[in-house]
Amino acid sequence: MLAARAEEKERQQEEDLRRAQEAETEKEKQAAIEAALEQARIEREKAEEEEYNKWKGFMTVTETGTQDDEASIEAFVDYIEKAKVVALSDLASQFGLAQQATIQRVQELEASGRLSGVIDDRGKFVSVTKQEMEQITRFIRQRGRVSLAELVDASSKLIVMQETV
Description:
By secondary structure, the chain is mostly helical.
């Protein structure tokens, strides 16, 4: 029995040693793969940098400046307030801006209080003046609880739609 136990213990130690060697081999393989991936990433970035530098010589900046001067912002706000309902894509093309930049500008103007309204789910901005908002607020306070249908009906009467663009 002692011999069987000793043999079992020796076999167990050999099995543990084999597993440890397999784990070490697996770690080495994983490290080699990670090193190869890192090398590939470095080479790809280097190639991209070389490509950028090659094309950079062909690019020129013909005009610099910003669109955010006070006159262009006033024109932007005036255009929206006159149009009353304006598609953001049309607004972007009208002022030579990217659509995302146009949305950001509208949101900034709303946050600063220079513009008020809502952006609908179809990508249109509906300008609502302070007086129109006050009229809607007065309507809700006079009526108390109102349904969405009543609010829509009252809003369409209280908000003057001059022209749509």
